[in-house]
Design a protein that fits this description.
With 296 residues, the protein is an alpha/beta fold. It has 10 helices and 9 strands. Helix 7 (193-202) links the parallel strand 5 (187-190) and strand 6. The longest helix has 24 residues, at 2-25.
């Protein structure tokens, strides 16, 4: 018994020392990753998950929508190629139970069709084309993407899936699609509090975030998100965050804080200094510099 205890003690010391050595040799290594590797648990499986690490995180709003039509496959792929940490999109459900990427609840604004997404089957929606958006004329016959197509692009480029629920009813199917894509640990779900409570009742891994809109005060969403006990936060319209003290207060309460949509570098760095967890943008390249993602 004494020999066994001695061996266990030696093993613990070796693990501790190896962690210190790793941090000294690789000073940019996150201590959480070292601990996770020694325990046999991946960093993605720890409580930090998709928002772990200290790097500045930028999510492309509806894909890289200043350079391709919003919520289109070219916009999603361009965001991946530019090295964005995340790709944001909006999801609605068709009349036959499929999920598609569309910001509005209807298709009028960005396609050659009209009417609510929920009034059409997936096959019927495939008969319409996206005819509005930046550089729309560079791609012919642009179709409304499915949720699965969007997730496949996120997975291909190693991007976080930042998903806003617009109108869905089949929460189990919705979550199963995310899980089957392999992105459960690299996903954030945003939306109204009722949808988020349905998600949390079924899944505790994926962070959920309510959405703040100016001119409402930032405190309004604190009331809503308090209805969810853990792994949650608020994605604010950036003008609602007055200064760093707001972000600090949110973090002290165990809440994630993201901001949308920041489209100039000076403002982005201001919110980086505030310590927000991620920034949603239409314009700013992923790391404020040219970055082509080779993970394709």
């Amino acid at each position: 018994m004494r020999n066994i205890r001695r061996k266990l003690w030696v093993l613990m010391v070796l693990l501790f020392v190896s962690g210190i050595v790793t941090l000294k040799i690789f000073p940019n290594t996150d201590a959480r990753e070292v601990i996770a590797s020694q325990s046999g648990v991946s960093a993605q499986e720890t409580e930090y998950g998709v928002l772990s690490g200290e790097n500045v995180k930028f999510a492309a709003h509806r894909g890289y929508s200043n350079y391709a039509p919003e919520n289109s496959i070219p916009a999603f792929e361009l965001a991946g190629k530019m090295g964005f940490w995340g790709i944001e999109t909006d999801i609605s459900q068709t009349s036959d139970g499929y999920f598609v990427c569309m910001h509005n609840e209807d298709i009028d604004r960005t396609t050659d069709g009209s009417g609510a997404v929920s009034d059409y089957t997936l096959e019927e929606l495939s008969g319409f084309k996206i005819d509005t958006g930046n550089y729309v004329n560079t791609t012919e016959n642009l179709k409304i993407p499915t949720f699965e197509e969007y997730l496949e692009i996120c997975a291909r480029y190693g991007c976080a899936a930042v998903v806003e629920i617009k109108t869905i009813s089949d929460y189990d199917v919705f979550l199963n699609i995310i899980i089957e894509s392999g992105l459960e640990n690299n996903c954030i779900i945003t939306g109204g509090i009722d949808d988020l409570k349905e998600i949390r009742a079924r899944n505790s891994v994926i962070p959920v975030m309510t959405i703040g809109y100016d001119p409402a005060p930032y405190t309004d969403n604190l009331t809503y998100i308090s209805e969810i006990s853990k792994n949650r936060g608020i994605l604010y319209q950036y003008t609602q965050i007055e200064d760093k003290s707001v972000v600090d207060m949110l973090h002290q309460q165990g809440l994630y804080c993201g901001v949308w949509s920041v489209d100039d570098s000076d403002t982005a760095w201001q919110y980086v200094d505030y310590g927000v967890d991620f920034i949603v943008t239409n314009e700013i390249p992923a790391r404020l510099e040219q970055m082509i993602n080779e993970n394709e």
